[in-house]
Amino acid sequence: MDAVTKLASQHAVVVFSKSSCCMSHTINRLFIDLGVNPSVHELDEDPRGREMERALAKLLGRNQAVPAVFIGGKLVGSTDKIMSLHMSGNLAPMLRNAGAMWL
Question: What is the mean pLDDT of the chain?
């Protein structure tokens, strides 16, 4: 849990992902298309990945731990939450407030 918290607080937008996960790729593309440069941590390529995945699953309250998105150091959620925020127009202001995008 400490590794997740530490990594999540180091950048405005942090995505915990797996390189083979299409939903993780979709979320990363969305951020890039919005002009945001997320810090992406591929859990399947990190020696502590399994431990972090268990911690994220616990934080999210579900078995599927990726993608897990932190904005401004706070857990926002997974694909469904990020897409819902984007579609409602609430994602961009959240990103601006975190200093992740300027416009």
Answer: 94
